[in-house]
Each structure stands twice: as structure tokens, then as C-alpha cells.
Amino acid sequence: MPTTLTLKNLPDEIYHRLKASAEAHRRSLNSEAIVCLEAILLPSRVAVGERLARARALRDTLLKKKFRLQDINAFRREGRP
Prior knowledge:
The chain has helices spanning 12-24, 29-41, 48-63, 69-77. Helices cover 63% and strands 0% of the residues.
């Protein structure tokens, strides 16, 4: 049985982003909030083969670029993996 949830003290920036996303997807604020929560809390299982294919595709895009050690260290300092 579905449960009702009320959000209090929602930051304006979160509200505006949620509203824009809801409009872009042609959903109500409530439906968009549910979709966002589901995406974070109930991630779908990805088959191992598909996960490997995605990783290889990402790696192939990175191989075209040359990163210097100083660039990698700068990314790390910025908090980027």
C-alpha cells in the first residue's frame, strides 16, 4: 500500500530543479520525486556483459585523450575520481 510523504524545508534549488525536471518529463512534482527516489534507492541490476560493454565503451572514449600526470593529480585535488 502506498504511503504519503511530506517534505519539509526543501531547499529552493532542489525544488526548482525538481520542478524543471518534472516539466521536461511531463510529470507531476510528486511523480518526478518518486522517479528520482526510485533511481537512487532501487537501482536496476545490470547484466555483467552489459556492464563490461559500458566500461569498454567509456574506456575507448578516454583512450583518444592523453592525460598528463599533473592533470590527473589536479583532478584528484578537485575531488574527481
